[in-house]
Amino acid sequence: MGEKGWYTDEIEGKLKLDLTSNLLFSLNSSDITAEGKLLIEKLVRSLKTVDKGFYIRVIGHTDNQQFDDRQFDNWSLSANRALAVVRALNMGDIDGSRLQAQARSSYAPKFSNDTD
Fold first, then answer.
1. What is residue 113's predicted lDDT score, i.e. its pLDDT?
2. Which candidate, 106, 63, 103, places its Cα nearest to that of 82?
3. What is the rounded distance in angstroms from the CA atom of residue 26 to the CA atom of residue 11?
4. For the chain, what are the domain ranges?
5. Predicted confidence (pLDDT) per residue in 26-79, tens digit
6. What is the DSSP string of the chain?
7. Strand pairing partners for 14?
8. Which residues are paired to 32 by β-bridges?
9. Please, are residues 56 and 92 in contact by the beta-carbon 8 Å criterion?
10. Hey, what CATH class is 3-103 in?
11. How many angstroms separate the CA atoms of 94 and 16, rounded?
């Protein structure tokens, strides 16, 4: 993991920026934290300096913990988190036609949720 919970990588000719959810969100929340907003502002400044011909896909992930509320689940949480980041990028003047949001729920966790 890179500086303060994020890192970049190149995969199949595409730049991947990976952010840990606790950097952007509180537990079970899709509201971006103050620290997360600062990071997104920094990201927007960087994105404005590069080629505008690429798309930005934001993928929301969650852990495998279930919610008691059937109206709110890991699908909702991961989708709402991805949308929150997309909206923040768009509010930072990143062209909305270049932005995509994708939800992965608990089916593609970034880290194992198993405990010993």
1. 58
2. 103
3. 28
4. 3-103
5. 888 899 999 999 989 988 988 888 777 788 888 888 877 877 766 678 889 999
6. --GGGEEEEEETTEEEEEE-HHHHB-TT--SBPHHHHHHHHHHHHHHTTS-TTS-EEEEE---SPPPS-TTS-HHHHHHHHHHHHHHHHHHTT--GGGEEEEE-TTSS-SS-----
7. 11
8. 25
9. no
10. alpha beta
11. 17
- The span from the CA of 99 to the CA of 116, in Å, is 39
Integer Rg of the chain from CA: 14
At residue 81, φ and ψ (nearest 5 deg) are -65, -45
**Single-letter code of the amino acid located at 18:** D
Task: For residues 39 and 16, give the distance between their C-alpha atoms in angstroms, rounded to a whole number.
Answer: 16
Please choose, from the candidates 18, 92, 29, 23, the residue with its C-alpha nearest in 3D space to the C-alpha of residue 58. Answer: 18
Rounded to two decimals, the pTM is 0.82
For residues 78-93, average pLDDT: 93
Cβ pair 101, 78 in contact under 8 A: no
